[in-house]
Amino acid sequence: MSPGPSLAIVIRHTLGGGPLKGIVCAWAHALGIGIYALITLLGLAVLLKQAPLLFNGIALAGAAYLAWLGWQALNAKGGVQDKLDSGTQASWLTAARDGLAISLFNPKILLFFLALFSQFVKAADTVTGQTLIVLTPLLMDGLWYTLVALMLSHPRVLPKLRANAQLIDRLSGIVLILLACRVVYTTLWS
């Protein structure tokens, strides 16, 4: 729930395409969270952590994707409102791709599942328990970002956000690029 690239991308798709595009982005992100939960359940997360080259490759690919999204936001012409007016909104597929990629290429999510979530995997010795291990974070993530998309698209909030869309694009671009730099720094020099 803390602010980061996931929140930034859900906000961008909500402002640029309305609540449904934000929700598509949210549930694609949740699917990525579910994939990490499944990876943890199957024990592959430990293997990824023990294979630093693979883990670092995923982290650097994620940083490149964050930087690319940030660059796109910085170079957005006129902010989200102009995109809406000109009919050049992002497609449903783009919203889904961005949500899924943000979750899959975020090495912090893998570390979270390794550090905290993996201790519960041992207790899940039934199919029902294992299903709950995967579905709980998936549903919580999807519901949280759905709530964010719905709150931001409220008639009292959305016009104010759209009036400042260019500023929001610029700020989200800077945040995404800074996050990409942080990922590169922590991957290569920590």
Description:
With 190 residues, the protein is an all-alpha fold. Helix content is 84%, strand content 0%. It has ten helices and no strands. The protein has helices spanning 5-17, 19-42, 44-50, 52-74, 79-86, 92-104, 107-121, 127-152, 158-163, 165-189. Helix 1 (5-17) runs antiparallel to helix 10 and helix 2 (19-42) crosses helix 7 (107-121).
**Kindly, what is the distance between the CA atoms of the first and last residues, rounded to a whole number of angstroms?**
25 Å
Largest sheet: none
Number of strands: 0
Provide mean pLDDT, rounded: 83
Shape descriptor reads globular
Category from helices, strands and their pairing: mainly alpha
| Helix percentage range | over 70%
Q: Would you identify the regions where 5 or more consecutive residues have pLDDT less than 50?
A: 83-88
Strand content range: under 5%
How large is the radius of gyration?
Answer: 17 Å
Protein name: LysE family translocator
InterPro entries: LeuE-type
Main location: membrane
Pfam family, one: LysE
Question: What features would you highlight for this structure?
Answer:
190 residues, mainly alpha, 10 helices, 0% strand, globular
Brief characterization of the structure:
The protein has 190 residues and is an all-alpha fold.
Lay out the secondary structure.
Blueprint (H helix, E strand, L loop, with lengths): L4 H13 L1 H24 L1 H7 L1 H23 L4 H8 L5 H13 L2 H15 L5 H26 L5 H6 L1 H25 L1
Helix pairs in contact: 1-2, 1-5, 1-6, 1-8, 1-10, 2-6, 2-7, 2-8, 4-10
Organism: Shewanella submarina
Pfam family, one: LysE
Keywords: Cell membrane, Membrane, Transmembrane, Transmembrane helix
